[in-house]
Specification:
It is built from 11 helices and 12 strands. With about 325 residues, the chain is an alpha/beta fold. The longest helix is centred in the middle third of the chain and has 17 residues, at about 140-160. The chain is globular and about 75 Å long. It binds ligand PBG.
């Protein structure tokens, strides 16, 4: 048989395959989400996220040091607020002595170069488990934006490098950017969850923070997963309003959206490989149905290949160890 071109030449051994690989993962691709709780020397394994923990602040610091030593450059902070501080204003979110604010300071003190990003949304502080303020059974937009602005400024005061609004209210990026400017936080960035879908894949996360919505769902603010053009609209608006990094969330069921957005924008694109995506791999591996390590690397590579410059993932540490 005579062939003019033999594509298999480029796949013939490991050395050649790695030479022509179009996508490679590196530790600085990853953002490690961290769940922080009150207490000391306390750790709690999240039942639906085997191998992933909520740590007290002292253990969180240990974890951050390890992540930095592995080459991971960024953490994304979430805190579990105790029930007695939850209300419908979310005011604990901008308490300067709140767990989030103390955590930001302690992490920046311990590992100053670690890029600290913070989740900005009211759900951990809301008695209703919603990302915003509730009035007459509805999640109101403009009042919520005012709260998110206070929350963002408070994170900046504590030393956050990036605030990451994950709430999907209208106009919040512009409002947060203006407030950061007015308060002279000119070096604080915004990583906007721009295309955040109303997804069942957040289930385990809500276990981790005990933040499941008390009534209804999040479909009046998070996007309908049937939509693609809307993701571009949201993302372009966030960039206009001042987002430095934009995000697509979840990741693996939304690889098409990641690619569309990568092609449409000129800012870094991140993707959030969410709790349910973590849980699926863990569960299948536990049953012996998937090779966990291979599934981790293949998943993360596919997210990067789709166009993500950054990937927030609960597998950050595992991935870096696997990459060797
Ligand atoms: C809160 C928030 C959620 C996640 C990140 N920030 C949950 C939600 O919107 O209900 C999900 C992360 C994950 O599932 O890993 N606004």
């Amino acid at each position: 048989m005579y062939l003019q071109r033999r594509n298999r030449i480029l796949r013939s051994n490991a050395a050649i395959r790695s030479m022509v690989a179009e996508t490679t993962l590196t530790p600085s691709d990853f953002i490690a989400p961290l769940f922080i709780d009150e207490g000391a020397n306390y750790q709690f394994e999240i039942p639906s996220m085997k191998g992933y923990y909520r740590y007290s602040l002292d253990l969180t610091i240990k974890e951050v040091k390890e992540l930095w030593s592995l080459g991971i450059k960024s953490v994304l902070l979430f805190v579990k607020a105790p029930d007695n501080v939850k209300d419908n204003t979310g005011k604990e979110a901008w308490n300067k002595d709140g767990l989030m604010q103390r955590s930001i300071k302690a992490i920046k003190d311990a590992v100053p170069e670690m890029v600290v990003m913070t989740d900005v949304a009211l759900d951990p502080y809301s008695i209703y488990g919603h990302d915003g303020i509730v009035e007459n059974g509805e999640i109101i937009n403009d009042g919520t934006v005012e709260a998110l602005v206070k929350m963002s400024v408070s994170h900046a005061e504590a030393g956050a490098d990036f605030v990451a609004p994950s709430d999907m209210m209208d106009g919040r990026i512009g409002a947060i950017r203006a407030a950061l400017e007015q308060n002279n936080f000119t070096k604080v960035g915004i990583m906007a969850y721009s295309a955040k879908y109303a997804s069942c894949f957040y289930g385990p996360f809500r276990d981790a923070l005990d933040s499941a919505p008390g009534f209804g769902d999040k479909k009046t603010y998070q996007m309908n997963y049937a939509n693609r053009i809307e993701a571009i609209k949201e993302t372009l608006m966030d960039i206009e309003e001042g987002a430095d990094i934009v995000m697509v969330k979840p990741a693996m069921a939304y690889l098409d959206i990641i690619r569309e957005i990568k092609n449409a924008v000129n800012v870094p694109v991140s993707a959030y490989h969410v709790s349910g995506e973590y849980a699926m791999i863990k569960a299948a591996a536990q049953m012996g149905w998937l090779d966990e390590n291979k599934a981790i690397i293949e998943s993360l590579t596919s997210i990067k290949r789709a166009g993500a410059d950054l990937i927030a993932t609960y597998f950050a540490k595992d991935a870096v160890k696997l990459l060797g």
